[in-house]
Design brief:
The chain is mainly alpha-helical. The protein has helices at 20-27, 30-41, 54-80, 83-88, 90-108, 111-143, 150-173, 195-223, 229-243, 246-253, 256-276, 295-320, 326-348, 354-361; strands at residues 181-182, 185-186. Helix 3 packs parallel to helix 11 (256-276) and helix 7 (150-173) runs antiparallel to helix 8. The longest helix has 33 residues, at 111-143.
């Protein structure tokens, strides 16, 4: 998700999407931190923190099936379910789909190309995850009535942009931060690059963070206004996750894709779907949690689950019948599908779109 323009007018809305516990656990990183704490607690002596424990293999697979795949499906459903959306975002829905489908075919015929695409995916994932976190942080600020002026919001944006650049550049600067294997393939480092780039990004991150803390302190002292807890939690999680040392960050990234990024995406996408389909009419905000278990919403989630299974399990299996390894077919679809997901999300979740603002902010 990308953040857009916020209005400074209107009544203060209910600060949570569904319920404080649901939001904090699934949308703000509570589930992620619980799993990280258990991972560090039960890590065997001498075992690297970036290696999954025996029971976590099943857990990570379940996270992929229950969270990661459906969160991509949610984007596909938003993009293709309505003709108006498909035509308005014709580049994202038609041209990019054709391009990335052809790219799947090309990568299956060239292992080095597939390795390069995986390398690119590993870097762009940082931008996608951090950008979404920025948008959701602003969403909670707005929903709590904690409005930021343009310069204040710019400072918060610089924090996230510099965090993105630091995370990406660090991979190309220090070999220990560049995974040698990803998605079952050996991938090139494409470096190292001079350290000055990484250190510059880190310096900007530190300075912008100090600036933003000063802004929060001024608002608290002079205006008596405080940034909401979910926003603090999201900002803290994002910065710690992407600046930690190599072994600790490796432990974090075991759980980041499914139990942080995908989980929070599904919460917001589910809320949006409920609002857009009219299921929230005459429902008090504090009763929104009941809609999570409605027949219509369960149908929505299991539809996402089925679509995700088709794309990331059945499609690779079908391709493997033609002599391509299942691992290569899955990796190609996963990576190119991820690129399409990144591109589509950048258009679907713009808060400049009045429909998006109305759905998730009002």
């Amino acid at each position: 998700m990308t953040a857009g323009i916020f209005s400074n007018s209107g009544a203060k809305p209910y600060p949570w999407l569904f319920h404080p516990l649901v939001d904090l656990f699934f949308c703000c990183g509570g589930l992620f931190w619980l799993l990280v704490a258990l991972h560090f607690k039960f890590n065997a002596p001498g075992q690297a923190l970036n290696q999954s424990l025996p029971y976590e293999t099943v857990l990570l697979l379940a996270g992929s099936v229950l969270f990661s795949n459906p969160h991509v499906s949610a984007t596909l459903l938003r993009l293709y379910s309505k003709k108006e959306t498909r035509n308005r975002l014709w580049f994202h829905s038609y041209l990019s789909l054709i391009f990335f489908t052809l790219l799947v075919g090309a990568s299956l015929s060239n292992t080095f190309l597939l390795a390069l695409l995986i390398r690119l995916y590993a870097s762009l994932t940082f931008d996608h995850t951090i950008s979404q976190n920025y948008g959701i942080t602003l969403m909670y600020c707005y929903r709590s009535g904690f409005l930021l002026e343009n310069k204040e919001r710019l400072c918060l944006k610089v924090i996230h942009h510099s965090l993105t650049w630091f995370s990406i550049l660090r991979q190309f600067t220090y070999i220990e931060f560049c995974p040698k294997k990803h998605l079952g393939f050996t991938i090139p480092m494409l470096g190292p690059i001079p350290e000055i780039f990484t250190w510059t990004a880190l310096s900007v991150l530190i300075l912008s963070s100090i600036c933003f803390l000063a802004i929060l302190a001024r608002k608290a002292v002079k205006e008596g206004r405080h940034m909401p807890l979910p926003a603090y939690f999201l900002l803290f999680t994002s910065v710690i996750m992407f600046t930690a040392g190599v072994e600790i960050s490796g432990g974090f990234f075991l759980f980041t894709p499914a139990f942080f990024h995908a989980a929070q995406y599904l919460v917001v996408a589910t809320y949006y779907n409920l609002k857009e389909s009219g299921q929230t009419e005459n429902v008090r905000p504090e009763n929104m949690i009941r809609l999570l278990f409605s027949g219509a919403n369960l149908k929505y989630y299991f539809g996402l689950l089925g679509l995700g299974t088709m794309v990331f399990a059945l499609a690779p299996f079908a391709i493997s019948l033609f002599g391509v390894s299942f691992t290569a077919a899955w990796a190609a679809i996963f990576v190119c599908g991820g690129f399409h997901h990144f591109l589509a999300d950048s258009a679907l979740w713009k808060l400049r779109d009045a429909r998006v603002r109305e759905a998730i902010l009002n």
